[in-house]
Specification:
Elements lengths: L1 E9 L5 E12 L5 E10 L1 H22 L4 E6 L4 E4 L1 H7 L3 H4 L4 H5 L1 H15 L4 E9 L3 E13 L5 E10 L1 H13 L1
Antiparallel strand pairs: 1-2, 2-3, 4-5, 4-8, 6-7, 7-8
């Protein structure tokens, strides 16, 4: 079988390269080593690309975590692929516990009845934006402003939905209070 490892080497010109070293020991019939056959591949550019992707993901997560709104991405199976810190906080579940769970399960049946048709509209290819009151399984009754945007692949097929939900409960309560005073 093949054995391998990755490590960094310094070249004669002083530059550093990432390499992937793979080797296999050929043995005689009695089990003693005859020779080692191996390859070394320069994977510097691949490692750089991985670091760049990881850095981009971290920056995007930081950016979405600073927004005072719930941001999530739902796959075609109607399960969460990602969400921001505010989303996690609102539902009292760690990000890792939200990812992979169905929207209906997380929101609860009452909330799904209110928001599900709008999410389905986005999966049908039409963006949806609205305001309503929703009874969430976790978090109680809240007024929200929601926007669901279809995400299309290169062929135009909807492969997911980006969700942006803002809690407008305080604003709505103040508006109702002003209306009662008028």
């Amino acid at each position: 079988s093949w054995y391998g490892t990755e490590f960094r080497v310094q070249r004669l010109d002083g530059s550093w390269r990432d390499v992937d070293d793979r080797a296999r020991i050929q043995r005689r019939r009695d089990g003693t080593a005859l020779r080692v056959i191996g390859t070394i591949h320069d994977v510097t550019e691949h490692k750089k690309a991985e670091r760049d992707v990881r850095r981009g993901q971290q920056q995007l997560e930081l950016l979405s975590d600073t927004v005072p709104a719930l941001i999530s991405y739902i796959g075609t199976d109607r399960c969460y692929r990602t969400c921001n810190a505010e989303y996690s906080k609102w539902f009292g579940l760690a990000r890792e516990d939200l990812v992979g769970r169905s929207v209906r399960e997380v929101l609860g049946a009452d909330a799904w009845r209110a928001v599900g048709p709008h999410i389905e509209q986005a999966f049908a290819g039409q963006p949806s934006e609205y305001e309503t009151e929703v009874d969430y399984r976790h978090g109680g009754r809240r007024s929200i402003h929601a926007r669901y945007t279809p995400h299309r692949d290169g062929t135009g097929e909807v492969v997911g939905v980006v969700c942006l939900v803002t809690d407008i409960t305080t604003r709505m309560r103040a508006s109702h209070a002003r209306a009662r005073l008028a």
